[in-house]
Amino acid sequence: MYRKHDESKRTEPFKHFGVGLFGVNSHTHRQHRQLLMPAFHKQRINAYRDEMVAIIQSVLNELQINQPADIAKVMRILTMRVATKTLFGSDVGEEGGSSGRLLESVGGLLSNSKTSLLPFDIPGLHYHQMLNQMALVDEEMLRIIRQKRARGTDDGDVLSMLIQARDAETGLALTEDELLGHVSVIFSAGHDTSANALTWTLFLLSQHPEITANLLDELESVLQGPPTVEQLQQLPLLERVIKESMRILPPVPWNARVTSEPTTLSGYDLPEGTEVFVSIYQTHHISEVYPNPEKFDPKRWESFEPNMFEYNPFSAGSRICIGAGFAMMEIKIVLAMVLMQYRLQFLPNLAVERNGIIVMSPKYGMPMSVHKQDRQFSLGVGGVWGNVREMVQLPQ
């Protein structure tokens, strides 16, 4: 599906995904990463904090007390709005706008197994629908890019910085195709993965009342409201909870690499150009590295420091996610704001099934009832069924 994108005008948008950071290699990858890095420097990321907090609170205000809510959907809406605001600025509006909805739609279709099983451009098929949506995405992205280029100013968003970025050696700017590729990849990586990391973490906390109580104690001892950037550094248990959640239920459960030269792996000779799939999930569940790997145990991180081959929810090495710092700040702020205001109670006897090709998400969403924070954490514990029980130890 991706290897023949030059054969048809309809599949031309695939080229843009191929020139994002995920699709370029060697010198081009290093060159593009250097151009993108300033948009994700710590100082720039910290500047997004106030906008994040405003969007998060706006979404949380929509929750209805003592009513059920699909927390997976809530987290998707929340992270989509944060991603569109920080990526595109004011061009997409306060509700995510057409750009965010189009990109989310394409991401959903790309991760749907029906799309790859029947890659035929025939009306009625998921693949045909995806091509239609990708064409609309290109059209919308080009409109925003050209509008920002014409203004020639830094609006404080990622896209503005990418448009103004110049290679230190050549002085060249990113082409429209390259900008389209980076925008698509950054949005998908920064929105879908964070939404699922948050969903899985809130689910795990709902089933581990003692850990949740200890975490709220920590939050209340440090915070008087939404966390500042400085206060985030004073919340070690929050960081351990997130690390353990992303270990046991990694939002991206696998990765792929291509050999750049002939090599041998576990006794197998692999020629140059061989595609190798790496299971992040299996790596995070190796019992020699993580004793009792199916146990949700944030305490293991008090003294344990794995190397990049043992723990890599954001990938590792030269290919580590460029937005990892941004994602961690967002996840920490969301969890702190949710837990300080609400108790989310799992609705019993519902199936929690892992789903997805690229990103691991709950197949049927994550329905939970919303309550004001009353510390009744033992309510809603247990009653979980589905294949999530193969991945993590849960109360009966």
TrEMBL record:
Specify the superkingdom. Answer: Bacteria
A molecular-function term among this protein's GO annotations: iron ion binding
Q: Per its Swiss-Prot or TrEMBL entry, what cofactor is needed?
A: heme
What Gene3D superfamilies would the database entry show? Cytochrome P450 (1.10.630.10)
Sorted alphabetically, the keyword list is:
Heme, Iron, Metal-binding, Monooxygenase, Oxidoreductase
**Pfam entry (one):** p450
Q: Which InterPro entries match?
A: Cyt_P450 (IPR001128), Cyt_P450_CS (IPR017972), Cyt_P450_E_grp-I (IPR002401), Cyt_P450_sf (IPR036396), Cytochrome_P450_monoxygenase (IPR050121)
| Membrane spanning stretches | none
Q: Where does heme bind?
A: 321
Q: Which PANTHER family match?
A: CYTOCHROME P450, CYTOCHROME P450 12A4, MITOCHONDRIAL-RELATED
Stated family: Belongs to the cytochrome P450 family.
Question: What is this protein called in UniProt?
Answer: Cytochrome P450
